[in-house]
Amino acid sequence: MSHMDVGVPSSPGKFKSEKPHLHHHQRFLLRWHNYLPKLFVWSFFAAAVLLALFLISPNSSSTSSGFPHSSFTTERRFLRTSSAPTWGGPEWEKRVRSSARIRRRPFGISVLVTGAAGFVGTHVSNALRRRGDGVVGLDNFNDYYEPSLKRARQALLSHSGIFVVEGDINDGALLAKLFDLVAFTHVCHLAAQAGVRYAMVNPGSYVDSNVAGLVSLLEAARSANPQPAIVWASSSSVYGLNTQVPFSEVHLTDHPASLYAATKKAGEEIAHVYNHIYGLSITGLRFFTVYGPWGRPDMAYFFFTKDILSGKPITIFEGPEGATVARDFTYIDDIVQGCIASLDTAQKSTGSGGSKKGPAQLRVFNLGNTSPVPVVELVSILERQLKVKAKRKVVKMPGNGDVLFTHANISLAKKELGYHPNTDLQTGLKRFVKWYLAYYAPPSRTYLSKKGRSGGSSSS
């Protein structure tokens, strides 16, 4: 717009200004006086636009999991947690102590399992309880995937006498209270924000859970008296762009391919610091593509099963020039075996009152099946188990942080933990499909909601 006042002709020579001579500062003030109304209007408009974007952003990013047409989609940038009652009180403390009670003497252990309502957490907790160990679970019950599945897992644990505390690992007061109530001998830290592709939608959740959450847990553990030994879930994703196969613990992990991998790599470095400074005994476990009953719905084998039964097309990725995508699929029972062996062989922490008294154990192990299987073969096995032909759609792998293959070298875990995976993919998928059909019960091969679901939300 012109700098002239409204109503002043723009054609030169037809109007002679009658304005008196003004000093420079007077002209400056007059100019601002004329612009203020316009500035106010544009500022108000900009503020309104920003407010609208803020209000709609959590629901406006309907982004798929990275598998086009897959059944697992993410429509929120912010994960919701349950509206559980505030922790604490005599009855709550009684339940914590009862759940932590060791029934296996004299060699039983008492374990705090974080992410207890998650896939691996549920299986590890139940396995520990079956042999008489004390187990207390902790889970924030967010809605990264269907909440009812985690609530159903929680019910399984409750039936076994395991109390799952509803709370977040970033709640330092809650962690301090738990360590004050129970002299945990071990922590099995499985709580994490999982999934490679979701990091492109909600990166903050990975930093909050996998980095800040780990630090929060280690802070509580190093201040506890006695200090527990820590076993925690890293990931095969830390190998990133490494091309040496099979992946070995001695290989460099300096080139992560995803934010998820980067947070797990950061976790391994953080673990080293707390071991070095505070004498915490820490064991990191690099899981390789865990699958099985009660699994995660965001995993390919899980939503492939759902979509095959629903008659929907499934998307299979291939690499450059038709390269095969393969994974070292590891059955849940084998992972549990490795987790428990890690707990049993973990040495005591050497700190006291937050001060290190001597060198402490620091280990990292691969837990895989050491038999990579192409994803197309996974689909073929599912077709045979479900007795339904899949509608396949093959597309190029997008640049979302996934890698072409994973392959674990497990010689160190065999030597140090006695780890011996013994479940092949066909056997493991048969057990998964049996559970899936019983849990979701799709009549006439049509996917329906699971009968008898309970409400709520859950964590990973």
Task: Name the features.
single chain, alpha/beta, seven-stranded parallel beta sheet, 40% helix
Oligomer: single chain
> What is the N-to-C succession of helices and strands?
HEEHEHEHEHEHEHEEHEEEHEEEEHEHH
CATH architectural name of one domain? 3-Layer(aba) Sandwich
Return the structural class.
Answer: alpha/beta
Shape: globular
Strand content: 5-15%
- How many β-strand stretches? 17
How many helices? The count is: 12
| Average pLDDT figure | 84
Subcellular location: Golgi apparatus, Golgi stack membrane
Family: Belongs to the NAD(P)-dependent epimerase/dehydratase family.
EC number: 5.1.3.6
Pfam families: Epimerase
Short recap of the structure:
The protein is an alpha/beta fold. Helices cover 40% and strands 14% of the residues. The chain has helices at residues 24-60, 90-100, 119-130, 147-159, 172-181, 203-223, 259-278, 300-310, 332-345, 375-386, 411-417, 425-440, and strands at 63-64, 73-74, 110-114, 134-139, 163-166, 186-189, 229-233, 282-287, 290-291, 313-318, 326-327, 330-331, 351-352, 355-356, 362-367, 373-374, 391-396.
Please provide a written account of the structure.
It is globular and about 55 Å long. The strands form six sheets. It has a seven-stranded parallel β-sheet with strand order 5-4-3-6-7-8-15, sandwiched between helices. A two-stranded antiparallel ribbon has the order 1-2. A two-stranded parallel ribbon has the order 9-12. Helices cover 40% and strands 14% of the residues. It has 460 residues and is of the alpha/beta class. It has helices at residues 24-60, 90-100, 119-130, 147-159, 172-181, 203-223, 259-278, 300-310, 332-345, 375-386, 411-417, 425-440; strands spanning 63-64, 73-74, 110-114, 134-139, 163-166, 186-189, 229-233, 282-287, 290-291, 313-318, 326-327, 330-331, 351-352, 355-356, 362-367, 373-374, 391-396. A hairpin with an 8-residue loop joins strand 1 and strand 2 (73-74). It has twelve helices and 17 strands. It has a domain at 63-291 and 330-370 and 407-423: NAD(P)-binding Rossmann-like Domain (Rossmann fold). Helix 5 (172-181) runs parallel beside helix 6. It is found in: Golgi apparatus, Golgi stack membrane.
